[in-house]
Specification:
By secondary structure, the protein is mostly helical. The chain is 40% helix and 9% strand. It has a 3-stranded parallel sheet. Helix 2 packs across helix 3 and helix 3 packs across helix 4.
Length: 116
């Protein structure tokens, strides 16, 4: 099963056949950054930024991207700059990309629910 790794784009490039970089400045980056002001005012914590990313993928436009992301990232380890012991949007992408029902289309409403 694919896993989340910590690193920078050049690290992922060295593992290019098995790993995709999903961190800052990648097409899969989380637009909601921990430490930045949240839509409600105070700076976001890492968990809040991941929750917003996940909620965005559930929206009408986000579902289109979640399908594309799932197909592109299926079976790959995902690398981001986040510490491994902190919440990261790569965990959302891993769940999305590797939990395809019939092998062709992700069930985004089910896949984006927190399994906890």
């Amino acid at each position: 099963m694919p896993v989340r790794l910590r690193g920078v784009p050049s690290d992922a490039a060295a593992l290019s056949t098995t790993c995709a970089y999903v961190g800052p400045r990648s097409p899969y980056a989380n637009p909601y950054v921990a430490g930045a002001r949240s839509p409600l005012g105070p700076p976001m914590k890492a968990e809040e930024s991941v929750d917003l990313f996940e909620a965005t993928l559930r929206g009408s436009v986000g579902r289109h991207y979640s399908t594309q992301f799932a197909r592109a990232l299926r079976g790959l380890d995902l690398m981001c700059t986040c510490p491994l012991d902190a919440p990261c949007h790569a965990d959302v992408l891993l769940r999305l990309a590797n939990s395809l029902g019939d092998g062709t289309a992700p069930r985004t409403t089910e896949l984006l629910e927190d399994p906890r």
